[in-house]
Design a protein that fits this description.
Layout: H1 17-31, H2 44-48, H3 62-66
Length: 70
């Protein structure tokens, strides 16, 4: 492919500049390599709604301990 040859050619229809821009944006998004991102850490608010790994076991004082901060 030469430098003068277009990368994209419309063979049917007459797309507007906005339609072409949307098409190019969609193509660029699909062909861009995905960076290996680390998963974001959950916020304190999100963690507060999850069951804890060390939930208080049933027994003496469990009811009181269930309301205490961890």
């Amino acid at each position: 492919m030469s430098a003068e040859e277009p990368l994209l050619r419309v063979t049917r229809g007459a797309p507007t500049a906005e339609e072409l821009a949307a098409l190019v944006g969609a193509i660029m998004t699909r062909t861009r390599p995905v960076a290996a991102a680390e998963p974001a850490a959950a916020s304190v608010w999100a963690r507060s709604g999850r069951p804890a790994a060390a939930t208080p076991a049933a027994g003496p004082g469990a009811w009181r301990a269930s309301g205490l901060p961890r």
